[in-house]
Design brief:
The chain folds into 3 domains: about 1-90 and about 225-275 and about 440-469, 3-Layer(aba) Sandwich (Rossmann fold), CATH 3.40.50.720; about 90-105 and about 305-415, Polyamine Oxidase, Chain A, domain 2 (Alpha-Beta Complex); about 120-225, protoporphyrinogen ix oxidase, domain 3. About 35% of the residues lie in helices and about 15% in strands. The protein has 17 helices and 16 strands. The chain has helices at about 10-20, 65-75, 90-95, 110-115, 125-135, 145-155, 155-170, 180-185, 185-195, 195-205, 280-285, 295-300, 340-345, 370, 380-395, 420-435, 450-465, and strands spanning about 5-10, 30-35, 45, 55, 85, 100, 105, 220-225, 235, 240, 250, 305-315, 325, 335-340, 355-365, 405-415. It is globular and about 65 Å long.
Length: about 475
């Protein structure tokens, strides 16, 4: 009789786990347990009656590297290759990214020429930051904030403007609190190997090492609308109440039968919870038995931030620049993370009004509470007003939008703060030593991008069933 594996959470990590579990030569029975009314987790879209599409979460993937290739292979095997919207490398959405600093938009430097001359908002050529990195001594601490790392190696402007903005774009987080070792492990290892980030990166890339860091975020080069049913049995699930060593992978309330009688459960970082939203790791910690109190404590130490996503559509409007979008450093505006120019990358989603302009304004993150108060009580009108003001001030769009959608995603992006690598090591050691039938996957551990989540599912399933074809 085939074993049963319970997958807790129908977000992208859980759906990918179902996919990998079902594709082996001797697949187990897969039971997908999801508390919400929909699958997909933070990947959410709204399609208007006129065909316009508005994304409320991740909107693309980078197809580069092994993880990106695995994602595209999964999309192809699911019969969704024709649904991928490619964005070529020479497209403006791929080449042009902007920062909003001191009341103006500035294109991020690219190419050798831009590094040799002074390009605003930087006060001198970035070549000098590169020389600083080549001459600076290597760090000796086991972990360091991303800001401290960048300040030490590249100088204050790079740390305060460029690195700060990137961390807000990828993690919606504060680079002064985030761990460079966990968020950008390739940079951390590069310095330790060659004393210089630039020299170490050259060595890593020359050896074919994966380029992305733990975050793996950033502008998309390919986009897929995944609408297939998961390869497993789906059931609604009240919050899981226990996961012990007695062979039951998961015991659910509300009449849901026990999970695996043999093998491990493979919970993911669960999808967006039903109202009232709950931080997934907090819910998992509550579900663990008393003898796993140490594990529960470590899970609770991984925080997450909330993000308000405001979709806006304008008719007959034009952008002052063309690109993927722009980020805003925290010194400029803590509340506003950035604005994505959706219509530039994906004009196919403009709908019947081909001349319309779609934008997505990202608000809050690590600054949500100080800017807007409790995420559970934030007024949509306040968030919409703030988003419209940002579009008006930074992009010059004066008219009111013809369509707007406001979503607040509570505790949606995990934060890899200082010491995160130790927490994940402790979690892994506890699971191994106590032989718990539990595998932890998803954005809370080793990468927050869509590719990272899918990759974590693949690794967990391979540990359970062996290498996948």
């Amino acid at each position: 009789m085939a074993p049963t594996v319970a997958v807790v959470g129908g977000g992208i990590s859980g759906l990918a786990a179902c996919y990998y579990l079902a594709r082996g030569p001797h697949p187990p029975k897969v039971l997908l347990l999801e508390a919400g009314a929909r699958l997909g987790g933070w990947l959410q879209s709204t399609r208007a009656a006129d065909g316009a599409v508005f994304e409320h979460g991740p909107r693309g993937i980078r197809p580069g590297g092994a993880a990106g290739a695995d994602t595209l292979h999964m999309v192809s095997e699911l019969g969704l290759a024709d649904a991928v919207l490619p964005v070529p490398g020479d497209h403006p959405a791929s080449r042009n990214r902007f920062l909003y600093v001191a009341g103006a938009l500035h294109k991020l430097p690219s190419g050798l020429g831009a590094l040799l001359r002074t390009v605003p908002p930087f006060s001198r050529a970035l070549l000098w930051s590169g020389l600083r990195d080549l001459l600076a001594p290597a760090g000796t601490e086991p972990d360091e904030s991303i800001h401290a790392f960048a300040l030490r190696r590249f100088g204050r402007e790079v740390a305060d403007i460029a690195v700060d903005s990137v961390c807000r774009g990828v993690f919606a987080g504060d680079c002064r609190a985030l761990s460079v070792r966990s968020c950008f492990p390739l940079l951390f290892r590069a310095e330790r190997r060659r004393r210089s980030v630039l020299l170490g990166l050259g060595l890593a890339l020359g050896s074919g090492e994966r380029r992305g860091g733990g975050g793996g975020g950033g502008p998309a080069h390919a986009r897929s609308r995944v609408g297939a049913e998961p390869p497993g049995a789906g059931r609604a699930l009240e919050p899981v109440v226990a996961a012990g060593r007695d062979g039951d992978a998961a015991r659910g309330a509300g009449g849901v039968p026990a999970g695996a009688r043999s093998g491990a459960a493979v919970p993911s970082a669960p999808a967006q919870p039903p109202p009232p939203p709950r931080w997934p790791l907090g819910a998992l910690a509550e579900a663990l038995p008393a003898e796993a109190a140490v594990l529960a404590q470590e899970l609770r130490r991984i925080p997450a931030v909330s993000v308000a996503v405001v979709n806006l559509q304008y008719e007959g409007a034009a952008l002052p620049v063309t690109g993927f979008g722009h980020l805003v450093p925290s010194l400029e505006d803590g509340a506003l993370l950035g604005i994505v120019y959706d219509s530039v990358a994906f004009p196919q989603h403009n709908g019947a009004a081909a001349a319309s302009l779609r934008l997505t304004v990202m608000l809050g993150g690590a600054w949500f509470e100080q800017s807007f108060g409790d995420p559970a009580a934030a007024a949509p009108e306040l968030l919409l007003h703030r988003a419209q003001a940002a579009v008006r001030e930074q992009l010059g769009l004066e008219p009111a939008p013809t369509r707007s959608i406001v979503r607040v995603h509570q505790a949606c992006i995990p934060q890899y703060t200082l010491g995160h690598w130790q927490r994940t090591e402790h979690i892994g050691r506890f699971l191994a030593e106590h032989r718990l039938p539990l595998s932890l996957i998803g954005a809370s551990y080793s990468g927050v991008s869509v590719n990272d989540c899918i990759a974590s599912a693949k690794v967990a399933v391979e540990r359970l069933l062996g290498p996948q074809r």
